[in-house]
Amino acid sequence: MRIDIEDLRVAYAGRTVVAGAHLVAAEGEITGLVGPNGSGKSTLLRTVYRHLRPAAGRVLLAGTDIRELSSARSARHVAALPQERGTDFELTVREVVAMGRTPYKRAFAGEDATDRDVVARALADVGMDGQAGRRFTALSGGERQRVLLARAFAQGPDVLVLDEPTNHLDIRHQVELLALLRGRHRTALVSLHDLNAAASVCDRLHVLHAGTVIASGPPREVLTPPLLAEVFGVRAAVVDHPLTGDPLIAFDHRTPAQPKQEVPSWR
Ligand SMILES: Nc1ncnc2c1ncn2[C@@H]1O[C@H](COP(=O)(O)OP(=O)(O)OP(=O)(O)O)[C@@H](O)[C@H]1O
Fold first, then answer.
1. Which CATH number goes with the domain that contains 35?
2. What residues form DSSP beta bridges with 81?
3. Atom 12 in ligand 1: residue holding the nearest Cα
């Protein structure tokens, strides 16, 4: 299912932080949202999974304004890994993942065989099937994250909205998660700080800067040295990854960019 974000404006206590954002997350593609700290990525994603109501503009799911859907119906279509990773569940790992089945249940209905299969598969997908009986609160940050991702998978959504899904994960689990996402061929809207991961895994990127989308397109077209200097304030060369051929951003970790001296060719 495709997502269209049209002229989205979101404010906290009267302060606008998303200021007329437009973007499309195409059906079956991984769409990445990148941008510096505070540029509005989480805020934009929160409106897509209906945690926040926009001040203006719309989020369309396959052409329908998500505000017109019931919460159960929207939860069957859109599942989120929010940045707030809820640490207060007094539940086991398996119980947390089984919460993903709630949108399919009548009140007080128990689990059926499909629920059990879906939950087992979701736990296996994130490599937590051996830890299903552990208490969620006893897990490490990365383990919790994988469990919450399994909960989103168990929701069986058409669209996954993932806010920084690789935060806290060691490099192997980052690679596994991103490979899992690619393998699912499901519409995903994902914010990522790791621009190299974004360049490898995303079909299209949108760059958010001060609450507006200032560049969109395939990673190789978007992540150019002038944009990296102007928007992220870093010097970098973009080369071909020697193993995959994906764009590889080689950052200069010694010296920040001087944005005013760069030519912003992405405008
Ligand atoms: N609950 C809130 N109340 C008030 N202001 C907020 C709230 N959440 C975020 N903001 C502000 O909105 C702006 C955008 O924040 P947001 O978290 O959307 O950015 P982000 O691009 O996801 O940042 P980061 O990369 O640091 O996670 C920031 O200035 C932030 O301080």
1. 3.40.50.300
2. 162
3. 17
